[in-house]
Design brief:
The structure is a homodimer.
Chain A lengths: L4 H13 L2 H8 L3 H15 L4 E3 L4 E3 L1 H28 L4 E7 L1 H18 L3 E7 L2 H9 L5 E4 L7 E16 L10 E2 H5 L4 E3 L4 H12 L8 E3 L2 H9 L5 E4 L11 E7 L4 E9 L6 H15 L8 E3 L1
Parallel strand pairs in A: 3-4, 3-5, 7-11, 8-9
Antiparallel strand pairs in A: 1-2, 5-12, 6-10, 6-11, 6-12, 6-13
Helix pairs in contact in A: 1-2, 1-3, 1-4, 2-3, 5-10
The structure holds a DNA duplex.
DNA sequence: GCCATTGATGCGCACAACGCATGGAAAGAT
DNA sequence: ATCTTTCCATGCGTTGTGCGCATCAATGGC
């Protein structure tokens, strides 16, 4: 039982047209080709499917059944290939992006909304986590790409996406809140509330304090920026956070001021596996992102396209 | 988009096994063959499906999608061909038999029951009608074969099946009912209740009366034998019917006696189109019928295997 | 009786598919 | 570090499949 698609297609066309010549015209092949194909199919099946009279072609009982089944098979092939084609063209499937919670909450929503309006059938999955796990997701192939911080490492290619400036986060009534800008130096004199050591933010604040030779001993540290926000709002100290995460701080009595001397910003990159074919749906997503960048679409204050 | 089943099968095997060599062993082809087949498929699709590392083979996102779809298509082919095979082997499908109501009601039930116990998935359709329409059903291809009376005509091949002897049908209290046999001569002296002119029975009774030079003027005629039975039971006259139809006469006060001088029987044949491949399911049905005949299975009195 | 049309078939060509042998790369063994 | 094994890719020659062209036989319409 080894009948080819070609034979089934040929048979289906002939049976539907009830004519070899007509079917040959439709399929753009010679009549002889069809004649052979059908004859071969019949020989392999060991059954006559068509009743040929020099003038007419009609189906036997087996032929009726065979036509039904042949069309089933040919359709399965056609629709399957079409479905795959759509997937390969990035018109269906899923984009999996690994990223930091702040990016997921602040930057991505507008991009996703823009992308989905163009490719409504492409599902989008966000894997949010800290820097390390985000990169692992990409390396392991769980995610198509990441939007995250961190040095280009291993087999990942990085493309700069946005710059995210650090700002001082202060209790509303804090003296420094009176200024339009705050220097790291000033901040260093206050009790500092840091985020956890695994956070990408922490490394940068430590580095900033090191740069101005300030002691880098936080008064307290917390895992999530929301917690840090709470602590600051409660008046326990001040903090320095990238502008992008500010929306995650909640609605407490906080203010934020640009940090200077030095201006510090973290760079968020698109990270993808080198030499790895990116699924087209993911490519399209990145293109949307790129458009947003070239159009300089609105970003929260302190965040700018790279 | 012209990927062959061969390519899809090859790809599915390789993708499932995550190895060209292992898949090659399973499919009993050379590894090089698979390597090429998959490479060709990828080229045609314009997308990389497998990530080859000299040590491992793993699927890309497109590869996962392609595997799902390839298996879908290959399965559709496999199960379709299997289904067709079953049909061709007479293990599924339908047998359509055209026949007279009496055969349908009396002779067929036991045969069908025997056949269905062996081929439970083969449906059986009975087209019952009068002699003419029964033959037409076969000629037009609506039915696979017929069990009916009538002369071999046109493009039909006839195979004798049973002989069905005519018996006198009498009111229970009729004088002739006292005899063990009745001659046509005797019957001719009574008011005769005939069946309609389109019935195959009518032609034979007319012929019998002609043979003994009796006037063939029925006292009344009715379309169905059941009606004739009712008329006889009501004492309006007598009739002559083939033994096979007796069960159709209902339970009225009737008796029947073998008719002699001459003994008349109608022959019921299997009629099938000449030079026409009979669907295997139908062949199997006829074989069952043939078995019943060689085993001389019980038939109503007056009916005997030909 | 003649012509047009239909499906089957002989023939030759092109190429698709295969196996064999081999190459190169990398993991595991020594 | 070197050797061996294992894996996939590829060049090569052979075989067979698929195709179109030309042609044949049968048959219905004129």
């Amino acid at each position: 039982m080894e009948s080819t698609l070609r034979q089934l297609t040929a048979y289906a066309a002939v049976a539907r047209a009830a004519s070899f010549t007509a079917a040959a015209r439709q399929l753009h092949v010679s009549q002889s080709s069809l004649s052979r194909a059908v004859a071969d199919l019949e020989r392999e099946l060991g059954a006559q499917l068509l009743e040929r009279d020099t003038r007419n072609v009609q189906l036997t009982a087996a032929g009726v059944e065979a036509l039904r089944i042949a069309e089933q098979i040919v359709n399965a092939h056609r629709s399957g290939m079409k479905e795959l084609q759509r997937f390969l063209l990035g018109e269906s499937g899923a984009v999996v992006v690994a990223t930091l919670p702040s990016v997921a909450a602040v930057l991505l929503p507008q991009v996703i909304s823009g992308f989905r309006s163009r490719r409504p059938e492409v599902a989008i999955q966000i894997l949010d986590g800290l820097e390390r796990s985000v990169l692992d997701r990409v390396l392991s192939g769980d995610a198509d790409f990441a939007i995250t911080t961190g040095e280009p490492s291993g087999r990942l290619e990085h493309r700069p996406l946005v710059r995210d400036r650090f700002v001082a986060v202060l209790p509303q009534e804090h003296p420094l809140a009176a200024r339009t800008e705050v220097a790291w130096e000033d901040l260093a004199r206050e009790p500092f509330l840091a985020v956890g050591r695994e956070s990408s933010v922490r490394r940068l604040t430590d580095a900033a304090f090191a740069q101005i030779d300030a002691p880098a001993v936080p008064a307290a540290e917390a895992g999530s920026v929301a917690t840090v926000g709470g602590l600051v709002a409660a008046g326990l100290g001040v903090s320095a956070l990238p502008a992008l995460v500010l929306p995650l701080l909640g609605t407490g009595p906080l203010v934020h001021r640009p940090l200077t001397d030095p201006v510090v910003d973290r760079r968020l990159d698109i990270a993808l596996r080198e030499r790895r074919p990116l699924p087209l749906a993911a490519q399209r997503f990145l293109e949307t992102l790129e458009e947003f960048r070239t159009q300089q679409r609105d970003l929260p204050p302190g965040v700018s396209w790279a």
